[in-house]
Amino acid sequence: MASLGAAVIHVAVTPAHWNDWLPSGVFFASIAAFQLLWALLAWWRANTLLLVVGVAANLGSAALWVMSRTAGAPFGPYAGEPEAVEAAGICVLLLQCYVVMGAAWALYRRCRADEVPAVGRSLVLLGATTIMAGAVAVGLASGLQGHDHHHGADAEAGAVHGPTPDTPVGGHHQEEPAAPVAVRAVPPAAPAASPAPEADGHQHDHHD
């Protein structure tokens, strides 16, 4: 059930990866087909070889996802650039881990002679179905919104921020108002002294 859910999410996100980079789309289509076929074969007859292949393939896919979100994919146009963590990827990772645990538990049970009671098998199946349904619902809701390939610093550089005080708005430059200038009061000048009278006793006014 978990392998079937992972296959459904991989199918949903394949077109976005296909348009982004053709080899990436082929990879996602291939892993979806493998998980779907593996789920059908495991439901019909889960032999030891099939369980081992399921564990190895899902471990490899989960490891590749973790690498692409931490150190970046080892190849492709975005090699070395960490990808964004999305809900669809987390759900697929959860389902693949569930496949690994379930297949490993089945391998372990093959080494024991006693059988699991019918009630125990029913509870395990109910739990697997519940987890698969929830993970697929969240993964499809995230995957159908499209795949975003903004990485690390590129995503931060392309983010849109609100206008700052220094940013022109509407194509016009906004000048900051000049700081008020302090005006110092100047005391009135003292009245000029009257000119001294001339020797002849008359007072003359001189004009420029």
Structural class, from secondary structure content? mainly alpha
Distance between the termini: 111 Å
Name the helix and strand elements from N-terminus to C-terminus, one letter apiece.
HHHHHH
Number of strands: 0
User: On the 0-100 scale, what is the average pLDDT?
Assistant: 76
Runs in which pLDDT lies below 50 for 5 or more consecutive residues are: 148-177, 196-208
Instruction: Quote the beta fraction.
Output: under 5%
Detail the topology: elements first, then pairings.
Elements: H1 2-20, H2 22-44, H3 48-70, H4 87-110, H5 118-143, H6 152-157
Helix pairs in contact: 1-2, 1-4, 1-5, 2-3, 3-4, 4-5
Characteristics:
208 residues, mainly alpha, membrane, transmembrane, transmembrane helix
Describe the 3D structure.
This protein has 208 residues and is an all-alpha fold. It has one domain (2-147). It contains six helices and no strands. Helix 1 (2-20) packs antiparallel against helix 2, helix 2 packs antiparallel against helix 3 (48-70) and helix 3 runs antiparallel to helix 4 (87-110). The longest helix is centred in the middle third of the chain and has 26 residues, at 118-143. It starts with a helix and ends in a 51-residue tail after the last helix.
